[in-house]
Amino acid sequence: MKHYIGASNPMRAQFEPKADYQAEHFAWRYEAGVGTITLNRPERKNPLTFDSYAELRDLFRALTYATDVKVIVVTGAGGNFCSGGDVHEIIGPLTGMRMPELLEFTRMTGDLVKAIRNCPQPIVGAIDGVCAGAGAMIALACDLRYGTPATRTAFLFTRVGLAGADMGACALLPRVIGQGRASELLFTGRAMTAEEGQAWGFFNGLHDSASLLDAATKVARDLAEGPSFAHGMTKTMLSQEWSMTIDQAIEAEAQAQAICMQTEDFKRAYEAFAAKRKPVFGGD
């Protein structure tokens, strides 16, 4: 969960702000509590490289300790989200590697998904155009996803002779769209249309390309104005309860909610309700 660390807390130095982060392999922008990651190789439909995989992994891990970033938006430049691993910069070199090196690579790609899922902030995907392979997995790892009528999402690993089981796809995708639908997409590698994605629950909404990022950013800003500690608790429980029984989940939520009831934000919400005004949350 996301913890509030006050300015006078002796641990504050361990929780660094990320507003001024200088990205090397993608674009980073921060405004009003929202950090925006833009995959920006539009001439190639924003493919990933070994370096961008690693930098994304490391940034999401670091955002766990950011004091200023409340919500994260992930998007792509030039009308596409991400075409997956770069054919020439990743796929080609992989064909010449031996098993230990290949395992290091596949673990690194999986670590990116772990970092996204373990990042306590809500993560909003703004997904236009091509969303394929590892790009589809980044989208799937987001907490909320918004697309356009032009979005095509393809888990196309079988198209390059690999298993559909990549970066956690066989665990995550069935939970989002159902076992049968996930099985079809992972076996065939065909693209899921935007309309299918919305009907199946992959997308939370569709917008035209011109307004997609604004719509996703509005959702992010609304969340950033909310109780960030409680949002972090919600994300934690959504993840942890996958492996719980119903009784265990109910008990875990009782404990989680009791913790949230000790926050100042809980008191602020009550006081604002009593005064008939909108609460201003502080994340503590």
TrEMBL record:
GO terms for molecular function: catalytic activity. Belongs to the enoyl-CoA hydratase/isomerase family. It comes from the Bacteria. InterPro entries: ClpP/crotonase-like_dom_sf, Enoyl-CoA_hyd/isom_CS, Enoyl-CoA_hydra/iso, Enoyl-CoA_hydra_C. It comes from Acidovorax cavernicola. This is Enoyl-CoA hydratase family protein. It holds the Pfam family ECH_1. Gene3D superfamilies: 2-enoyl-CoA Hydratase, Chain A, domain 1, Lyase 2-enoyl-coa Hydratase, Chain A, domain 2. PROSITE patterns: ENOYL_COA_HYDRATASE (PS00166).
